[in-house]
Write a structure and sequence with these properties.
Blueprint: E1 2-3, E2 12-13, E3 16-18, H1 25-28, E4 36-38, E5 54-56, E6 63-67, E7 72-76, H2 81-88, E8 93-94, H3 106-111, H4 119-122, E9 129-135, E10 141-145, H5 150-156, E11 165-172, E12 174-175, E13 180-188, H6 191-200, E14 206-211, E15 223-230, H7 238-241, E16 253-254, H8 266-285, E17 289-292, H9 293-297, E18 303-304, E19 315-323, H10 327-341, E20 348-353, E21 367-375, H11 380-393, E22 397-398, H12 408-414, H13 418-428, H14 438-442
The protein binds flavin-adenine dinucleotide.
Length: about 450
């Protein structure tokens, strides 16, 4: 069937099979064929696509054990983050790191070694994984942790499914007393102010900025910065205190059809950005307020199929990270280039990263990460190549979970531990490597 990632580009005709039991794996593989595991398809580009065999993990979705003394959860890799939240938040537990959508699998979170709004404090999801089980193409299963098959463990965190099929995972949840985050919104008039607010918010567990990406000149990098921390039970306002661990409110909007690309222009996108900034400035005047975690962490999930907003041809999310010392100049150059192209994005998101973790191919490094969405049209590729050039010049790299078009040389320059990754992969896999995706072929991995 035709499959794509969240950006809907590229769409590729793939043989899709569901893995129900690990022992079925060798039987699903035709002789000499390659395969890639697929979670919930929330990576944006071509990471979870392989025409020969794309292996859906969604049927491997059992939670196997939970230790209420330590918060240790043992679950299969196809379990969705949304199911973990539904099962454990009412009991006072929350995952240590969550991405911007709850519609991802645990396997996908490890393969991309995802980050959240708390990377500066808590690192990536992988930092909280105790161990995982990994299947190779012949069905052999290995236990991987920091003490057993440690190289394979480090290669699998951020390894984009290229080291094997993650079958199950043990990681630690954290106790929370309420489902609410005390969120404070601050307005920044330019990039210097935006970054100064991040630095001043280091003690807050969560921080993120939405940048008005069409602002230029003196307003370049103006943003709405939000920071937050889970509220303790005793600090909840009285109207929320009766049910402190309440689930997310029901009700969603749905984008019913592809938005015609004629509506995505400088005027509509500029208007959206300006309104968003003005609303945020209004909030900034009203001080900190309690917000349900679902709204704080996953605002985009409230709009079902929002990827249709970018039209039938799909879109690309460009996400890069730049080292700390290069961040002001590099982010300014990226924003300037994007704004000058007129191909602005609805939202540009900026986050602060702490030090890089142990995953050999993990994306984060100490510095700032910027994410921009671009509808695909004539000229978009040239713009993105230009952004790559800026990222490279400032010593940064692009995020493979979002990528659909980066050139192999550019990617290689950004990932200095790629050689070590390739060595582990060659040793672990039968040669030639059986785990491959459209992404790995494009990037010659
Ligand atoms: C709205 C939105 C917001 C997002 N926000 C963030 C964010 O804040 N931070 C962040 O880091 N990411 C973010 N992402 C990206 C997303 O978290 C990652 O792409 C994640 O990997 C998607 O998980 P998935 O289960 O959908 O995996 P898929 O997209 O299906 O696959 C992603 C990769 O994981 C591999 N994989 C999946 N399951 C397995 C398995 N069992 N074994 C081996 N490999 C496997 C695939 O081969 C592929 O390489 C966001 C995505 C969206 C759509």
């Amino acid at each position: 069937m035709m499959l794509s990632g969240w950006g809907r580009h590229p769409a590729v005709d793939c043989r899709l099979e569901r893995l129900r039991r690990p022992e079925d794996l060798p039987g699903l593989l035709h002789r000499g064929a390659t395969l890639i595991a697929r979670g919930n398809g929330r990576s944006y580009g071509d990471a979870a696509l392989n025409p020969e065999l794309t292996l859906s993990m969604l049927a491997m979705n059992r939670m196997r054990a939970f230790d209420a003394g330590t918060g240790l959860l043992d679950c299969e890799a196809g379990v969705l983050l949304t199911d973990i939240l539904e099962a454990f938040l009412p009991r006072g537990w929350f995952p240590p790191v969550v991405p911007g959508t709850r519609l991802v699998t645990v396997g996908g979170m490890i393969a991309a070694d995802v980050h959240g709004k708390n990377h500066h404090r808590d690192g990536t999801f992988g930092a909280h994984v105790e161990s995982l089980t990994l299947a190779s193409a012949d069905g052999a299963i290995r236990e991987c942790s920091r003490t057993e098959n440690a190289d394979l463990f480090r290669a699998t965190l951020g390894g984009m499914g290229l080291t094997g099929v993650i079958l199950s995972v043990r990681f630690r949840l954290r106790p929370v007393e309420t489902a609410f985050v005390m969120a404070e919104t601050l307005a920044a008039r330019d990039l210097d102010e935006t970054m100064a607010l991040f630095e001043a918010s280091r003690d807050w567990p969560y921080s993120v900025a939405w940048i008005d990406c069409l602002a230029r000149g003196a307003g370049l990098g103006r943003a709405v910065v939000t920071r937050g921390a889970f509220i303790e039970r005793g600090a909840l306002p009285p109207h929320l205190a009766s049910n402190p661990l309440r689930p997310a409110p029901a009700g969603k909007l749905r984008v019913p059809a592809d938005v015609p690309s004629a509506l995505l222009n400088r005027v509509s996108i500029g208007l959206f950005n300006a309104l968003f900034y003005r609303r945020g400035r209004g909030r900034a005047r009203s001080g900190a307020r309690p917000v349900h975690f679902d709204r704080f962490f996953f605002p985009l999930d409230r709009i079902e199929a929002w990827n249709r907003l970018y039209g039938r041809r799909g879109f690309v999310q460009y996400q890069c990270v730049l080292p700390k010392g290069e961040s002001v100049a590099g982010v300014a150059a990226l924003l300037e280039r994007a704004a000058a192209s007129g191909q602005g994005s609805f939202l540009a998101v900026l986050k602060l990263f702490g030090p890089a973790g142990e995953g050999l191919m993990s994306f984060p490094m100490e510095g700032y990460t910027l994410a921009l969405d671009f509808p695909l049209r004539t000229g978009t590729r040239a713009l993105l190549d230009g952004l790559d050039e800026i990222t490279h010049r400032h010593g940064g790299r692009v995020y493979l979970a979002k990528d659909a078009r980066c050139a192999p040389e550019r990617m290689r320059e950004g990932y200095p531990r790629l050689g070590a990754f390739e060595a582990v992969r060659a040793e672990a896999a039968d040669a030639p490597p059986r785990f491959a995706s459209e992404l790995s072929r494009r990037l010659a991995l």
